[in-house]
Amino acid sequence: MEQSESETPQSPFLLAFEGFRTELDEHHDRRERIVKVSRDITALSKKMVRSAGRPIPQAILKTTKPHYETINTLFRSVSADLQGGDAFRYARNITGGLQEFVEAIVFQHYLECQELLSHEGVKERVKKLCAEGDTYELGAEDYVLGVLDASGELMRFAITTMALVGQSDSKADRENVQRSVLDDLRKLYLFLTNLDCGSDFHFKKDFQGKLSVMNASVDKVEKALYGLVVRGSERPKGWIPPDQQERGPGGDLEVQS
Question: For residues 238 and 193, which has the higher predicted lDDT (pLDDT)?
């Protein structure tokens, strides 16, 4: 008597591949959630940077708090997906948002305290973003790359401040403030140039590219301060150094004849 189709035993290979399919579907869904959250955190962190960069120190905390709270909610929604081995598995998916978050809080902390927020300090901030019972260890790579990004914001903040106080009556005070930012940028750049990047290809590539940008940022602040100190009396109030003026096609400065 022939066996009915419903009674035909399923192949063990079919059952195994169905399990693989389910696992892969869960993996892709998890990855998409993390990528989306990373993008949202990136956008909110940029808003935090723009708020902190305004020359109104009293309003820094007030303007950035709503963005920080939203980032907290977003990270809590995926912190369970970043536990154990999954933290390494999805590291490349969350790294963009984490670096932007590091940039924002490092920049804000510098404006408030005039010092660099340590790796341990940032790690504690990230841990507080996790849902109850979850934890996440921020790697040194994300911290370093976030600090490098923050140096660009410091450059823009320093040059904008010089433009706003270019006609200040207290030349000594003006020089002290700008030289302090420049000295900090120089020290940070000198330290990072001697940093051992290890063998991580992705980190080494990102690090070298961002370090080159930081070098350009330090150079811009030096030139802007030189112009302010040496030729400050000739500059109208609100004058922006050439490096910050609008660039023409191809990135070259537009020169008016």
Answer: 193
CA terminus-to-terminus distance, the chain = 99
Who wins on pLDDT, 173 or 103?
Answer: 103
In contact, 85 and 26? CB cutoff 8 Å = no
Using a 10 angstrom Cβ sphere, with 0-12 exposed, 13-18 middle and 19 or more buried, the burial of residue 138 is: buried
Distance CA 66, CA 48 (A): 9
Cα 236 to Cα 37: distance, rounded to the nearest angstrom: 45
pTM above 0.90, yes or no: no
Q: Which of 34, 121, 19, 17 is nearest to 76 (CA)?
A: 34
- Are residues 143 and 43 in contact, defined by beta-carbon separation less than 8 angstroms? no
Tokens read off for 69: 């709270």
Cα 76 to Cα 30, 83, 133, 188: the distances in Å are 14, 12, 11, 32
Query: What one-letter code names the amino acid at 203?
Result: F
Query: Are the C-beta atoms of 34 and 82 separated by less than 8 Å?
Result: yes
Give the Cβ contact number of residue 35 at 10 Å.
17
| Contact (CB, 8 A) for 121 and 148 | no
Length of the chain: 257
In 3D, which of 108, 97, 187, 185 has the Cα closest to residue 142? 97
